[in-house]
Amino acid sequence: DEFSDLSAAFRFLLKGWLLRVMVVVALHQLIEQSRWDSVLEVLASDPTCSEQARQTHRQDLPLHMACERHAPPEVVVQLLRIFPEACQHKGRGDNLPLHVAAHRNHHIEVLEAIIRAYPEALDQTNEASFTPRHIGHSDIHAFQSLRRPTCCWHQLRGDEQREENQEKRLQSLFSGVEGALQRVEKADVRFDRMMERLEEAGRRLEELQKVDGVEEAMEKTILETKSNVARHMQQMENHLATIEDDIDSSTTKEMMAKAAGRAHQEEILRLQRSTVDNGKRLKREVAEIKSQLQELAMDLPDTEAIAAQPE
Question: What stretch of H or E contains 261?
Answer without folding.
Answer: helix 150-299
